[in-house]
Amino acid sequence: MKIYSSFDAPSLRRSVENGTLEQRKAVLDILEEVRNSGDEALYFFTNKFDGVSLSTLKVTDKEIAEAYERVDNTLIGIMREAAQNIQEYHEKQQKTSWMMTRPDGTILGQKVTPLDSVGVYVPGGTAAYPSSVLMTVVPAVVAGVERIVMVSPPQKDGALNASVLVAAKEAGVTEIYKVGGAQAIAALAYGTKSIKPVDKIVGPGNIYVALAKREVFGIVDIDMIAGPSEIVVLADETANAHEVAADLLSQAEHDPRSSCCLVTASQSLAEAVQKEVELQLQTLPRKEIARASIDEYGAIYVTENLEEAIKVVNELAPEHLEIIVEKAQESLAKIKHAGAIFVGRYSSEPVGDYFAGTNHVLPTNGTARFSSPLNLDDYQKKSSVILYSDAAFKENASKIAAFARSEGLEAHARAIESRFKEEM
Where, in this chain's numbering, is Zn(2+) bound (predicted)? Predict the structure, then answer.
């Protein structure tokens, strides 16, 4: 990792907008093919991209039962406990419908309704992510979504990862299909003979999945356009260099385009972490991925003081932020932009990834400036309720009609006047 002053550090943005024209064209072609050919296209692309020839897309109850036999009971217990933590955290976010009454008898309110159906994308490929299943499905169940459809690319043997299937069953998924990539997003958005369309698609994926989600937005809703993972550690001289380096590498091993940054006012800590990263890289099983991430998107920012360091953090607006400074709570109060904030030595980022209960589907690439983690609001919609009273209408009808005419909308005005025109 290179050490920079906070003023000469390079841009580390890795937006999905950086997808090549070839990638974007490929996604558009896949979407169109699935829209036109349905299941036939799904089988074709699964064979082409995953090297698997399937006879059916839907996961059976038998496959789920077999998955339970292959997963260690201890891990199943851990997943159940994690799911309970996620459920409790998201239950606190629950909003209810409300009504207000004005003195003139008018009733105004908001009706909160769960979505009918949600599609959950779970990545496959180089790793299996049962934790992502829990993070995307449990909040949907808490929100009251009735139909939860999971899609994930099959392994070479044509099956889904056993721990992913167990997590899906434990979390409350109602349908599971063996399909991934842009073609899975197309199926969820447009529907096929096997897969009925959903109202919203959530969950992280590679750049093809991200580009596909962007293209189908408007036909369905989506949670966010997620880029590669990232972490920023805000630390001072009280931090342990070995622990900081380990936390940085916990994100570097995700993807060659993951970003890992230390922001500190301590030159000695910066140099110690730099050395520790190199040492720990040597023994990582995914060291080639982590090495590429560190070399291309890793950085250590050395600032003049803590205040400047906090300013840098807010400018980066990271997906994950760890605060490991002497007065962490004071620094927390000054943070404006971050997806998830981990405070103190024992709040290592994987605590939130797996177990604490907060959601690990988070805004990336600086979008924490205006976006939030996946939460219960993503699975619900709100309708305005207006019950205008007789008295309120008589008092305000002429004002409403005048307002409409000021915008050149005569029919709007007449719609009002048709009710009490004789009294106006």
Answer: 251, 254, 353, 412
